[in-house]
Design a protein that fits this description.
It is globular, with a radius of gyration of 17 Å. The chain has nine helices and no strands. It has one domain. It is mostly helical.
């Protein structure tokens, strides 16, 4: 099995193809969660590039991330930019502004849905599908750009692995010499 972008997002397409009356909102929730997971995995990959961390540190690194409260897309972007030397805007490219605007709107929908509320305005399946397509485009461009810039796309499993970019390992090692520094790094985002 090839675990890649298409495989990661296949369930979203399957839900949309089901034509179930809630397929739009169901696929939206899943694609938004996939986008959140991708950006989180990009940050955790960069953190793991620090020479301070090895395989046995995985559980402690996950717990430290879990304990960091209220992390958001902009905070993850800031952390990625700090550790990689380039942020999401560079990784995504020319479509960044358009797609980040869609993500901000999607976050408002997500917050309403996850808190059992209705969005301020009715959102049709067609509108959800348009947002889904743009989030998938964001994730695809981010996967391609991240692979190019840092050597990992944020989609493949196991972000706790060493990459081959010495300059990133040096940046991460300097900023994150230990677990306490990682916790402080997250808090400062």
């Amino acid at each position: 099995m090839k675990y890649d972008f298409d495989y990661e997002f296949k369930p979203v397409g399957d839900i949309l193809a089901s034509q179930h009356r809630t397929c739009g909102v169901d696929a939206f929730v899943l694609v938004y969660l996939r986008a959140e997971r991708q950006i989180r995995k990009l940050l955790t990959f960069l953190v793991y590039q620090s020479s301070a961390f090895i395989e046995r540190d995985g559980p402690a690194l996950r717990q430290t991330l879990h304990d960091a409260k209220n992390l958001s897309f902009p905070m993850f972007d800031k952390g990625i930019a700090d550790l990689a030397g380039v942020g999401l805007q560079v990784m995504i490219g020319a479509d960044y502004e358009r797609l980040v605007t869609t993500l901000k709107r999607a976050k408002r929908y997500r917050d309403k849905l996850f808190h059992g509320q209705l969005p301020d305005q009715f959102v049709s399946t067609a509108e959800f599908t348009a947002v889904i397509d743009e989030i998938r485009e964001w994730c695809r461009l981010l996967a391609e750009g991240a692979q190019r810039e840092i050597g990992y796309d944020g989609v493949q499993p196991d972000s706790h692995r060493k990459g081959d970019r010495a300059h990133i390992a040096q940046r991460s090692s300097a900023r994150l010499p230990n677990l306490a520094a990682y916790a402080a790094f997250l808090k400062a985002l």
